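Please produce the structure of this protein holding coenzyme A.
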Amino acid sequence: MDPDKNVSAQTPDWSREVVQKFWDPGPKLLRAIRRYQAACARGGVLGKVRSKYWALNHLFWSVITQSEIHLNCQIEGGLRLTHPTGIIIHPDAKIGPNCMIFHQVTLAGPVVLGGHVDVGAGAKLLGPLSVGNHARIGANAVVTGDVGEGATMVGIPARAL
Ligand SMILES: CC(C)(COP(=O)(O)OP(=O)(O)OC[C@H]1O[C@@H](n2cnc3c(N)ncnc32)[C@H](O)[C@@H]1OP(=O)(O)O)[C@@H](O)C(=O)NCCC(=O)NCCS
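Below is the modeled complex.
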């Protein structure tokens, strides 16, 4: 997890999402969501056909990763899914630019992540709540309330380090 505040909390770094190889489940799952949303926004017959294709593609990578990241989630650019397994993200969650989410993370309900928020393996965030920019959520933490900018939260229930 990267406490480096040089990573922007505002400007998406799209290079963080680039598909590197054929078998690259995290970036490919995200790409399906991006392309689906672009196709829906485009509209028309072509948009409809493309959206169906990307919805199927999303289903494939969802099964592979055993993750549920809804097709209509609001996710800003630069999201890293480093070990993409068992990630559950509620449709009402919002994710800011340049976040990182490890495996087995749950964003339950309307959770709003700011920019450059890193969420450690197994953490559960039980909304409604919001997390400030550059915050870090420790592995296996259970977060039940708002988290301030730059905070590091650990434990159950999570407390600031
Ligand atoms: C929360 C985290 C970012 C803190 O990192 P850090 O600032 O370097 O903190 P330290 O390792 O110095 O630990 C500080 C204290 O917090 C405790 N702590 C650290 N992480 C913790 C966690 N996830 N849960 C409970 N306590 C934790 C340490 O035991 C230590 O306690 P002490 O002061 O009583 O000795 C990091 O420990 C973490 O959980 N990262 C997640 C990484 C991850 O999920 N990786 C997946 C790789 S596959």
